[in-house]
Design goal:
This protein is an all-beta fold. Helix content is 0%, strand content 57%. The protein has no helices and eleven strands. The protein has strands at residues 2-7, 10-12, 18-26, 30-39, 46-51, 57-59, 67-72, 77-82, 91-100, 106-110, 114-118. The strands form two sheets. Strands 2, 4, 5, 6, 9, 10 and 11 form a seven-stranded mixed beta sheet that branches. Strands 1-3-8-7 form a four-stranded antiparallel beta sheet, with no helix packed on it. Strand 7 (67-72) and strand 8 form a beta hairpin.
Length: 120
């Protein structure tokens, strides 16, 4: 019913920048919250940033001032601009979307994940 397509991961040097993008397609009534989580080896998955349909943003403390999340509601797309990347930011990043489908049910959908490697 709802699919996510992620792009933008890769290898970057410390201090560099990357932008991740995620587009939601399929059959749904609304796309509610759009966000990015990450999971590093041996660690739990954590919420990096999220944005509501009304534009309210949330960031984990360690990325505030460095990362910026944005969404294009008309395209059901969300992007994560990551600046001043540190080795601690290296992880698999997952797009996560809450979408409401016919009947009013809200689904949580996950992307397949995209690897971000920060290394010199």
């Amino acid at each position: 019913q709802v699919q996510l397509e992620e792009s933008g991961g890769g290898l970057v040097q410390p201090g560099g920048s990357l932008t991740l993008s995620c587009a939601a397609t399929g059959t749904f009534l609304t796309v509610d919250v759009m966000g990015w989580h990450r999971q590093a080896p041996g660690k739990e998955r954590e919420l990096v940033a999220a944005v509501n349909s009304d534009g309210r943003e949330h960031y984990m403390d360690s990325v505030k001032g460095r990362f910026n999340i944005s969404r294009i509601n008309t395209k059901n797309e969300v992007s994560l601009q990551m600046n001043s990347l540190d080795v601690e930011d290296a992880a698999v990043y997952y797009c996560n979307v809450y979408a409401t489908i016919s009947g009013g049910q809200q689904l949580s959908i996950w992307g397949q994940g995209t690897q971000v490697t920060v290394s010199s």
